[in-house]
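Before going further, learn to read the protein records used in this course. The integers have meaning only within a learned vocabulary of local backbone shapes. To see the layout at work, look at the sequence and tokens printed below.
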Amino acid sequence: MGLATTPSSTLQRKSSYELDDFAVPTGREEEWRFTPLSRLKGLHDGTAAGSGAVSVAVDAAPEATVETVGREDERIGKAYVPADRVSAQAYAAFEKATVVTVPREAVASKPTVITFTGGGGTAYGHTVVRLEPMAEAVVVLDHRGSAVYADNVEFVVGDGATLKVVSLQDWADDAVHVSHHHAQLGKDATFRGFVVTLGGDVVRLSPSVSYTAPGGDADLTGLYFVDAGQHLEHRLLVDHSQPNCKSNVVYKGALQGDDAHAVWIGDVIIRVEAEGTDTYELNRNLLLTDGARADSVPNLEILTGEVAGAGHASASGRLDDEHIFYLQARGIPFDEARRLVIRGFFGQLIEKIEVEELRDRVMAKVEAELAG
């Protein structure tokens, strides 16, 4: 397959299934200028041979079907076309894909958990989650172990369907993960995506959303905690191309330690035909120590004057001394006061996680980060 789309604005990049359509990034490109290319272990330049393995295990809801298919399966690549060289490399190199389908009008009785476990080396993957019209499901993507891993994930949400996804990056300290998650929403479809990024040496996630009919509603939430030397990057794109659709983005992160680096890019485009769009995006970063760095870049491009609402906000700063003082004045030691403030910073987001045991696991991980 050749070139599929071409850019029509500064917020749209070309998309193609063909690796050769993308030049090897040098770091001078806008989409790569924050990413430490030398730490990607060759994922960006074709030198990373797929010599390792990331196992995929699925604990599916009884209403869902799970298939392992080859590259020729017609459901692969229908919702998402690779948008950069690593994404195209992953598309060209994967051998087997996991396809999860929830049938029409089915309501999944439990979450479907897909566990990706790295066993070392370099690997490529592809996952497709399909909800047929009026279906409802919760899906968990749980990443763990050690690997150099690039993959693409397609979420196809049919008319009137509701999909809630939690993606947890709980990799070992040496892992490298570059991933694109794309949600395609049908008429009156609902998508709730929650990203938690804690582990790994370098993690770069690119969630994106597109609409195929009016009435789609997307909510993208993210939480990340960056330690010394870690690079955690989230690059979002919401492409409003249909009228009367909604999107809301809220990402929060905390950073501590020398050379802890967080990058958040939030791109929203409202096309001429997308009248009645209602969108907002927010990013907040908490710098807990000296030596940590957060880059936050919200971008909003509006090509029509007929919108219901559009806005963005971004801020990075230190703990509020008044909050700490208030707690200490009531006899709470500094370390405990600090922990309570940070827990409150994340608490409202964590409460949105649908799966109770996963919610408890994330909170425990945050507590462990603070203790460390």
Remarks:
- The chain is about 15% helix and 45% strand.
- Residues 22 and 85 are 5 Å apart (CA to CA).
- Residues 3-318 form one domain.
- Residues 1-8 have pLDDT under 50 and may be disordered.
